[in-house]
Amino acid sequence: MIFVTLGSQKFQFNRLLKVIDELIETGKILEDVFAQIGVSDYIPRNYKYQMFLNCDEFAEIMDLCDIVITHGGTGAIIGAVKKKKKVIAVPRLKIYKEHVDDHQIQLLREFDKMEIIEACYELDDLNKKLVEVKNKEYKTYQSNTFAIINSIDAYINSGILKRHVNSDYRR
Prior knowledge:
The protein is α/β, with parallel strands linked by helices. The chain has two domains: about 1-140, Rossmann fold, CATH 3.40.50; about 145-170. About 45% of the residues lie in helices and about 15% in strands. It has helices at about 15-25, 55-65, 75-80, 105-115, 125-135, 145-155, 160-170; strands at about 1-5, 35, 50, 65-70, 85-90, 120. Strands 3-2-1-4-5-6 form a six-stranded parallel beta sheet, sandwiched between helices. The longest helix is centred in the C-terminal third of the chain and has 13 residues, at about 145-155. The radius of gyration is 20 Å and the shape is globular.
């Protein structure tokens, strides 16, 4: 099953929902699809959907799916890869009034470099990305919280911070 999740923010993502409908209509998507469409006003014709899901419903569908197609939001992506789901992420774009800016492109580039997701920068490529994601293995997500803490700790212990604090104190 494919789970499409578009988050719960105030931004629509009609473009993505329409492309998924077209791929189902043309027989390019054969799996069952369920979408959490948020505030999008495009109503899917060829797959089941719900505007919003509660936490239990979301977790149940996430557990049942093999592939997650989502917007370029960090929470949606991290949540899916932590559950070892194959993820195709599509950035919301300002030009289509899907977000206030194009920061999701930069986020997806970083996730792409980490090799934990399949980024789909152009919706015309979604069918190709669906084929690729089925045949590709991705790296396991590793939280970098400890790396950040270790980096801060090393900085503090290096004495650089101490020298800055002492020089500021003497002024």
